[in-house]
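Title: Comparing notes on inverse folding

I've been comparing how different people in this forum approach sequence design from structure. To keep things fair, I'm posting one structure and asking everyone to reply with a full sequence. Here's the target:
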């Protein structure tokens, strides 16, 4: 922690608005137009140089910074600050050509060649040396440049490599972790299938093999890869910090990106930044966006964060790329701001004419400034100025949603009872009803301090440490409300099954235990009923549980599990713990969340007012009286209440107190009609 953060960037600038700028793709005469158009659009930050390694270092050891000097000067003169990238994500062909051992190798032993991007092994000492030499010269050259406001290290770290160099680095990492081979053999369970290692040199990354690979070997390789990428990030960061201690450092995360454990990385950065490209074809994308933004905010401990990349319109990398309708750019940007972002940037400023991303949308499309797309960008840049009061404000959450990368990795190993239970679906299945109620959620690591939350939701904790289980038990004993989803408490940190009735380490707090996980026949509903007899359906998954102090809130109906518990609720100490042994359909899932929130005394930001709404306003999933109208999102950030309508229809929302909309200066009161894609930023009338 350096004390630097988004406040370093927003000071004197307000909310950040900008995008990736790749001037090396354009003749110099275009650069001045770009600077002028950026200024006119209210752009105050440009990310420069992400893919410029070959331009800066055309041959090994040669430097060409002249063009970059001119770019930074032009931007500075236009009042646009620079997020200067270390251009190390895409090495030039000469690196792979002269040093093929820097190229990544996949699990089948195939080299991934140059001609694209990202072609490096994160463990390669040659890559590391070349990258750090370049970063050093870049930092030395621009350390005192007045345009420099932020360092952008690499790009979207996520390289995975199985080459011989990575294999040796993996062995070193394992030696640190286990000390000796006996420890490794024990942890990996190598007595299984005759996998015992007698020499460190025998150990490999999990390469392609005839059949299922050792799951702990794979789990450790996920851990190792995340650490190896982090080590490279930190090496570049340290070069920058040594030269510019006053300039914050970031890299761009990718939300719920599986290969990198962002909990372990986030403290290494001054600003947590994210790239977010929702699929317009996914009807759930507004809620998925909210979940992602909440994750990013939480990774930074609640501090303001930066949306570093998003798309003004269509991307080009899905098979069929839907555009965004008018108003969508604004809606998505303000959603990020509402959830704690102090800046919104896009990939990219000017649409490329050539290269693999020539059909990707941009702030300035091929057709030029006289376009709807650019007009929206300009209007939004101007509008963001009105939101100055939000800068630096925090989002307060009463509910913590637990997410753990090693548990995700371990859960989704092949050779499990069902591949239909997976981490992100579970997370979203528990998040969505909370979002529908306007209940604000932080994401949290299972071993973090949860005592400040009224409710903790663990959609899946397949892998759980003893420390986390004890902390959760203490949390409930102390008065907290805990909700645990199916197939939790199964494995220890080595991925070994915890023996005894499950979920062994949570058995006491949950007041019940099970003996078998029983996936349900595909496409056949799992019939259940609440304790009052009301039926509901679930799918995919069941478990054979018995009650050990808990009350069965719901039971299964059919087969061997008839009348066996499906949902448990247990008063434990001063709190309450819930366990769910199936995957409920959306309506009963909403009902379940409603009951758990009632135990925790948690209501959504609008719920007091929503109680007065008519049934017609609350006809969404579950029909719960505390749900917001379909498509409506509500969240408080500091003193501001944000209301967003992601739906296709106008929505009616009751406003608790008279307020002023910062975006229009209008006074609103009573019952409000939100047009499709409308956003309000309400400040209570003092
Ligand atoms: C990101 C990447 C950008 C650009 C963008 C296109 O993953 O960081 O460089 O490729 O996607 O959507």
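Reply #1:
Here's my take.
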């Amino acid at each position: 922690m350096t004390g630097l953060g988004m406040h370093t960037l927003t000071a004197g600038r307000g909310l950040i608005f900008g995008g990736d700028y790749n001037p090396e793709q354009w003749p110099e005469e275009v650069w001045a137009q770009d600077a002028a158009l950026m200024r006119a659009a209210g752009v105050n930050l440009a990310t420069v140089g992400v893919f410029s390694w070959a331009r800066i270092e055309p041959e090994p050891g040669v430097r060409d910074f002249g063009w970059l000097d001119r770019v930074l000067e032009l931007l500075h003169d236009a009042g646009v600050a620079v997020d200067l990238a270390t251009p190390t994500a895409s090495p030039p062909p000469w690196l792979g050509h002269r040093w093929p051992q820097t190229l990544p190798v996949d699990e089948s032993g195939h080299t991934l060649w140059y001609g694209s991007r990202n072609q490096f092994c994160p463990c390669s000492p040659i890559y590391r040396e070349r990258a750090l030499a370049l970063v050093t010269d870049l930092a030395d050259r621009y350390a005192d440049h007045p345009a420099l406001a932020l360092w952008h290290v690499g790009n979207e770290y996520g390289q995975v490599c199985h080459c011989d160099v990575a294999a040796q680095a993996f062995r070193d990492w394992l030696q640190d972790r286990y000390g000796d081979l006996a420890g490794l053999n024990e942890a990996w369970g190598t007595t299984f299938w005759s996998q015992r290692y007698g020499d460190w040199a025998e150990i490999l990354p999990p390469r392609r093999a005839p059949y299922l690979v050792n799951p702990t070997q794979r789990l450790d390789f996920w851990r190792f890869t995340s650490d190896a990428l982090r080590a490279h990030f930190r090496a570049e960061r340290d070069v920058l910090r040594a030269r510019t201690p006053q300039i914050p450092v970031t890299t761009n995360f990718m939300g719920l990106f599986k290969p990198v454990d962002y909990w372990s990385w986030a403290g290494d950065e001054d600003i947590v930044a994210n790239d977010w490209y929702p699929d317009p074809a996914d009807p759930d994308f507004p809620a998925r966006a909210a979940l992602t933004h909440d994750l990013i905010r939480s990774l930074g401990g609640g501090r303001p964060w930066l949306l570093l990349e998003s798309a003004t319109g269509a991307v080009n990398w899905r098979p069929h790329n839907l555009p965004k309708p008018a108003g969508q750019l604004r809606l998505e940007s303000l959603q990020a701001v509402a959830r704690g972002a102090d800046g919104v940037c896009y990939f990219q400023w000017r649409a490329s004419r050539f290269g693999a991303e020539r059909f990707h949308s941009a702030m300035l499309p091929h057709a030029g400034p006289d376009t709807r797309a650019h007009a929206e960008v300009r209007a939004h840049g101007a509008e963001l100025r009105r939101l100055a009061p939000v800068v630096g404000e925090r989002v307060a959450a009463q509910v913590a949603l637990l997410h753990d990368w090693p548990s995700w990795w371990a859960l989704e190993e092949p050779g499990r009872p069902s591949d239909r239970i997976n981490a992100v679906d579970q997370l979203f299945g528990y998040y969505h009803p909370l979002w529908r109620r306007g209940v604000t959620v932080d994401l949290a690591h299972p071993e973090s301090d949860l005592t400040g939350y009224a409710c903790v939701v663990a959609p899946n904790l397949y892998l759980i440490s003893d420390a986390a289980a004890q902390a959760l038990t203490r949390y409930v004993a102390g008065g907290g409300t805990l909700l645990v989803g199916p197939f939790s408490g199964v494995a220890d940190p080595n991925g070994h099954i915890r023996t005894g009735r499950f979920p062994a380490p949570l058995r006491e707090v949950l007041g019940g235990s099970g003996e078998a996980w029983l996936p349900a026949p595909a496409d056949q509903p799992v019939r259940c009923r609440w304790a009052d007899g009301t039926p509901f359906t679930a799918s995919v998954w069941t478990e054979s549980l018995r009650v050990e102090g808990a009350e069965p809130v719901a039971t299964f109906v059919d087969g061997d599990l008839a009348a066996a518990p499906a949902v448990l609720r247990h008063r434990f100490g001063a709190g309450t713990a819930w366990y769910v042994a199936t995957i409920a359909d959306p309506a009963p899932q909403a009902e379940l969340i409603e009951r758990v929130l009632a135990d925790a005394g948690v209501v959504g930001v609008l719920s007091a007012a929503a109680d007065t709404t008519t049934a017609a306003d609350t006809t969404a999933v579950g029909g719960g009286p505390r749900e917001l109208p379909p498509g409506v999102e509500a969240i408080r950030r500091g003193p501001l209440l944000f209301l967003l309508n992601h739906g296709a229809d106008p929505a009616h929302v009751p406003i608790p107190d008279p307020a002023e909309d910062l975006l229009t200066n209008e006074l609103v009161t009573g019952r409000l009609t939100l047009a499709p894609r409308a956003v309000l930023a309400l400040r209570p009338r003092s």
